[in-house]
Amino acid sequence: MLSFDVEEHDRIEAAVGLSVSAGRRREYADRMAAATHRLLDQLAAAGNVSATFYVVGQIAETHPRLVRAIADAGHEIGSHSHSHTRVHRLTPRAFREDLRRSVDALQQVTGRPVFGFRAPTFSVTRATDWAVDALIESGLRYDSSVFPVRHDRYGVSDAPRHPFWLEGEAGRILELPLLTLRLMGRNVPVAGGGYFRLFPPALMRAGLRQLPADAAVGMLYFHPWEFDPDQPRLPLARVSRWRTYVGVGKTTDRLNELLTRYRGRFRRAIDVAEELEDQADRLPRFRLAVDPAAVINSVYSPSAA
Ligand SMILES: [Zn+2]
């Protein structure tokens, strides 16, 4: 599964707190639309590859024609929240409201239902376990926000690496986790983004090769701004700057290489989700919420005493 998180460049997590002029914001918005159109052309030229675009709800309001163009090209439109606020920064009530607004805005411009969600910066984690119930109750069919890695800003390092049922109090929702490579006892993130720009392409290929034959679906992710090497740089601190811009000149060629290598094998996340719903009992179950009894047992276990 190929996915694109559609957001203006100045919405990235590293830019939170930066002051970006209104003119620069407009420029990033225009460049986002242009880069997304180029991606649509690239996917069409590669044999009408279908992908999933997780779009920030506010973009449905500011760029309705862009969102319609994506949907009209046969791609799936999912929600990437309404305001691109990390789940950690929202109360449960504000998260529900933000999610609802994004789904409404996206559905309104495309006239098609939204089935999937990707949280900004993969911010569905143990710290935001309450979000699972909000997702279940929203009526969405699947979520793709869990990155089974250890990272300073996100990640659930012990989550299953392949599709699973994310369980909450309110029931369960299908989770399509981001692709990882199991290497020397650790999960290495190889799904896209900065990893796609930084790591040699062989690592992503190795992650795809590790997929089990009976569940050979891997979720990849990219952002339109990563395919716009000439965009003005944000005034980021050194490490952030490096993380953000490393390899942006190589991405278009790398994506083309990927599209050629796996020609005929790309599917939209919703199509995979529908197929997995039919094999519901085969999928593992996983809870983000830590069972209080398990914590007490681990703290007061006889071995620790
Ligand atoms: Zn994002």
Can you walk me through this structure?
The protein has helices at residues 22-45, 57-62, 64-72, 92-110, 131-137, 193-198, 201-209, 238-245, 251-261, 269-277, 292-299; strands spanning 2-6, 52-55, 76-79, 116-117, 142-143, 164-168, 171-175, 180-183, 186-189, 220-222, 285-287. The chain is an alpha/beta fold. It has a single domain (2-299), classed as Alpha-Beta Barrel (TIM Barrel). Strands 4-5-7-6-11 form a 5-stranded mixed beta sheet. A hairpin with a 2-residue loop joins β8 (180-183) and β9 (186-189). The longest helix has 24 residues, at 22-45. It starts with a strand and ends in a 6-residue tail after the last helix. Mean pLDDT is 93; it is low at 301-305.
Residue-averaged pLDDT: 93
CATH classification, class level: Alpha Beta
Based on CA atoms alone, the radius of gyration comes out at 19 Å
Low-confidence stretches: 301-305
Bound molecules: zinc ion
User: Count of helical segments?
Assistant: 11
Give the structural class.
alpha/beta
Beta-strand residue percentage: 5-15%
Count of the domains: 1
Major beta sheet summary = 5 strands, mixed
Question: How far is it from the N-terminal to the C-terminal residue, by CA?
Answer: 48 Å
* Order of adjacent strands in the largest pleated sheet: 4-5-7-6-11
Please tally the β strands and state the result: 11
CATH superfamily: Glycoside hydrolase/deacetylase
Shape: globular
What is the CATH architecture assignment? Alpha-Beta Barrel
